């Protein structure tokens, strides 16, 4: 539930609206319009007793669409039996369109704000772990999905080591090593291509299936982390529902991956400068014969 008017808190808290148990919402999310003159006489209507107590009689449900893809449902209720007219359905469709546009604008603004906050964090701290934690948290929360993780290749380039996570259990993270040679999906991503898995059950290349099922992961988006056009790791976002990630979501996660690369490169350059400065200090100390031990920096 994102917004409501004219409904009691008791009704709004009646219980979850699970799509798989609600054939009417399934129809709406397929792009159909559902009009019910009397919900008490509709066997497929969920929570009929609660609706009757609330004084709800008729229902009109229309899909909220973004770029022709349903992303939600707009419902209109009446307290008396009512057959919705074509003109009323047209008005509801217009309101749903305006709502979808408002949602898309809000998401775009939120993503832009997230990128700006991360850029500010990168420029204000040299604590790489802090920046990576912020990025995975921002990826999951801004995109509205279950979890996110960031893995980097080890020195040999054989294993992907976890560096930051958000929303994943400790048990899942300890499921086992992620060896590149055993993971075709990771190989594809490390070659520089985003990997969009809309349904892990239907993807034969997915590993650790039992662990993924227990973690309630249904879809995954992978994007590569590139430094100077070389893959050093990958960033993943996980969805608890089957979901084909949109081009906008792929672009946003790729933008976050670019910020990861910037943060890692900044940390590497800082360590290089620090080492060079320490070497120079030691050399100057020896040149001027100020003692056997240079000052500790």
Automatic annotation (TrEMBL):
Q: What positions does the domain GAF occupy?
A: 2-113, 127-274
> Which GO-annotated molecular functions does the record name?
phosphatase activity
The cross-references to InterPro entries, in alphabetical order and at most eight, read: Bact_Sigma-Reg (IPR052016), GAF (IPR003018), GAF-like_dom_sf (IPR029016)
Question: Which controlled-vocabulary keywords does the entry list?
Answer: Hydrolase
Q: Please name the Gene3D superfamilies in this protein's record.
A: 3.30.450.40
> Per its UniProt record, what Pfam families does this chain match?
GAF_2
The protein's name in its UniProt record? GAF domain-containing protein
């Amino acid at each position: 539930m994102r917004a409501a008017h004219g409904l009691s808190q008791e009704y709004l808290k009646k219980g979850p609206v699970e799509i798989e148990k609600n054939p009417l919402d399934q129809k709406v999310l397929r792009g159909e319009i559902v009009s019910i003159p009397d919900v008490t006489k509709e066997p497929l209507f969920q929570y009929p007793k609660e609706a009757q107590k609330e004084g709800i009689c008729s229902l009109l449900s229309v899909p909220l669409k973004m770029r022709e893809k349903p992303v939600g449902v707009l419902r209109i209720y009446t307290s008396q039996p009512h057959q919705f007219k074509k003109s009323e359905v047209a008005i509801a469709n217009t309101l749903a369109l305006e709502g979808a546009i408002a949602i898309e604008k809000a998401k775009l603004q939120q993503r832009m704000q997230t990128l700006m906050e991360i850029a500010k964090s990168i420029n204000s701290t040299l604590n790489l772990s802090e920046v990576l934690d912020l990025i995975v948290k921002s990826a999951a929360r801004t995109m509205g999905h279950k979890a996110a993780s960031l893995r980097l290749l080890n020195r040999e380039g054989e294993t992907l080591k976890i560096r930051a996570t958000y929303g994943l259990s400790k048990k899942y993270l300890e499921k086992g090593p992620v060896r590149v040679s055993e993971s075709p999906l990771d190989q594809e991503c490390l070659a520089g291509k985003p990997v969009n898995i809309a349904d892990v059950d239907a993807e034969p290349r997915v590993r650790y299936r039992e662990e993924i099922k227990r973690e309630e992961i249904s879809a995954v988006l992978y994007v590569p982390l590139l430094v100077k056009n070389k893959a050093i790791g990958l960033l993943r976002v996980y969805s608890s529902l089957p979901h084909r990630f949109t081009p906008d979501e792929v672009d946003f996660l790729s933008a976050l991956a670019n910020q990861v690369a910037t943060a890692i490169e900044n940390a590497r350059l800082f360590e290089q400068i620090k080492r060079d400065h320490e070497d120079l200090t030691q050399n100057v100390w020896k040149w001027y014969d100020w003692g056997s031990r240079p000052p500790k920096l």
